[in-house]
Amino acid sequence: MADAGKARLAIIAGLIMIGIYAIQFVAARFSLREHLTATDLAALRIGGAGVIFLPIVWRSGFASMRALGWRRALALAALAGLPYPLIINWGLTYAPAAHAAALCPASIVFFSFLLSRIVFNESAPQQRTIGVVAIIAGLVLFIAPGRGGTGGVLFGDMLFIGSGLMFSTYAVLVRRWRADPVTATAAVVLLSCLPLPVLYFVAPSHIHAAAATEIISQIVIQGILAGAAAMFLYTYVVGQLGPQMASLFLPGVPIATVFIGMAILGETPLAIQFAAIAIMAVGMGLSAVGGRIAGKRSSAPAPSGS
User: Fold this and answer.
1) Who's near 191: CB < 8 A, 6+ residues apart?
2) Nearest in space to 80 (alpha carbons), one of 44, 122, 108
3) pLDDT single digits (tens) 157-214
4) How far is CA 299 from each of CA 139, 228, 292, 295, rounded to the nearest angstrom?
5) Dihedral (C-alpha) 274, 101, 104, 220: value to the nearest 10 degrees?
6) pTM
7) Dihedrals φ, ψ of 62, to 5°?
8) I want to staple 252 with a disulfide (CB 3.0 to 4.6 A). Which of 18, 79, 94, 116 is the partner?
9) To 10 degrees, what angle do helices 70-80 and 151-176 make?
10) How many other β-carbons are positioned within 10 Å of the β-carbon of residue 126?
11) Is 123 helix (H, G, I), strand (E, B) or coil?
């Protein structure tokens, strides 16, 4: 019963994470189109998250981070810290936000599936394998209408895929090292805050042209919600369900982004993109069924010998 309760909490955490990341992509697209640069958004994300986690770590006396180990903390920060939003925001300057909302989750699903099999030697039931294939097919179909074949769009797409590999590796290392969710997230955020002063002087910035309300909104959305809350939630889901199952929440991000974008930005997807959403929903359903079947098989008592 306790395991079932933890699984339910992990599912709720995953659904909240989907909503946060969808809002993040829409908000990022709005500001990149108006005033802020990719560097501005990354700095607001890390700085806002740092405001949340610094008091937590300060109260614990950095003991938990020392227990994790500075080498491991630096590795996690390099994968999911400041470089991660910088790469995504850099890609958004070349490719549409819909590509980011689709390719980032798709690549995380694929690489989490692949790395879990390699690192943990995890076998996947047929339903989950088919589900992952359907998810990736749906995500590719989702971005297909917007592909113009230009080098800039392709470069942006490659950046999104690279960010997915980074985040998948982060999730696998969190599980392999059995890192506490709060400790891992705090290490990523606080270590990423250290280069922010240098970044301010060397990278282009239009933050002075933005209104105070826009800056505060992005601090809340990019920093407190996406940089702190969503990172913690994903790390928690990984700890409870593993990287493969945790990654299956991510295809919900483009689905939620479509509807939020329709409401806020007035962007209506094409019929083929709605079909892609249906394919992704089927893929997630198959993956969830496969996960439940695998869980029942692993928990079933072994047959007694005759």
Assistant:
1) 73, 74, 77, 81
2) 108
3) 889 999 999 999 998 999 899 888 888 888 888 899 999 888 888 888 888 888 899 9
4) 33, 34, 11, 6
5) -150
6) 0.77
7) 60, 10
8) 18
9) 150
10) 10
11) coil
